């Protein structure tokens, strides 16, 4: 990015408009002054000449703005003084030329150019200093504002990249976790001589990993895709637990397109299988539901297993729940919650709330 960007079209229009406004104001004052002294002829020409007299300042404003960026006033004031005097001399020459050629009120005996230039220079050099200084000051303020905005934009970009990197690291933490647990399930089937089921589970795991790779670049997916991924994971687990694992999904179709963090359900479901279903000889049911209240999406994962042990609040809840909690906080901050508790009827419920984000209509 250019540290000193050129004047843009919008800025050029503003500069032209400001100096045109000064020109019209000065021209109006000149016309009223002449009319108050009884000189009424050629006032239109006087108005146009006085308006045009300010035109050079519109041309040199971008130059002065550039000089303000290249040469800070505190360290390079002699350079600015030279430019100011030079611009003042050029402005005086411009006014002298206009007066000699077009001023309808100039005296017929007035010498031509040199005396007019000298008079304008000494009369207008102070005004040139003031105008040059004003342009320097405004340019410095605008430049400081632009630099601050650029720094804020860059900081926001870096923070976003850092946040995405952290989220990606958290997501990748989940993948080997469920892969390890699934491989343990496959090993358990092999030890039980259920080789056919083990082969089916390997095929299912292959499909699950392919889906995981497909969504790897994405931090968010649709709720439908997330539930489909979890369903595939549960199908694999069902090969091991057979009828001991019952599954119930209740996701309204109108919530299918809601955006959720990818792999946000799987760690919770895996916890339910490991601590709720595998711990009971008769197995149990895992229920996944989704609901909305105003602009909030609530996802619930429940099991009817033995529940959390007394005093569990003071202990770790494992990598899966901790990962989900951290990712929700990273995505949504205080707009999300994760609640883990025993149900009155037995088992555990994990409820997470997050903002309901639907894709924009095309």
UniProtKB/TrEMBL annotation:
Chain ranges of the Histidine kinase domain: 174-358
InterPro entries in the cross-refs: Bact_2-comp_sensor_kinase (IPR050640), HATPase_C_sf (IPR036890), HATPase_dom (IPR003594), His_kinase_dom (IPR005467), Sig_transdc_His_kin-like_C (IPR004358), Sig_transdc_His_kin_internal (IPR010559)
Entry EC no(s): 2.7.13.3
Top-level EC class: transferase
Catalytic activity of the protein: ATP + protein L-histidine = ADP + protein N-phospho-L-histidine
Keywords for this protein: Kinase, Membrane, Transferase, Transmembrane, Transmembrane helix
UniProt key word Iron: no
Transmembrane portions of the chain: 12-32, 44-64, 76-97, 117-142
Pfam families from the UniProt entry: HATPase_c, His_kinase
Cellular component terms (Gene Ontology): membrane
GO molecular function: phosphorelay sensor kinase activity
The keyword Magnesium belongs to this UniProt entry's keyword annotation: no
Domain of life: Bacteria
Protein name per its UniProtKB record: histidine kinase
Protein's organism: Granulicella mallensis (strain ATCC BAA-1857 / DSM 23137 / MP5ACTX8)
Lineage of origin: Bacteria, Pseudomonadati, Acidobacteriota, Terriglobia, Terriglobales
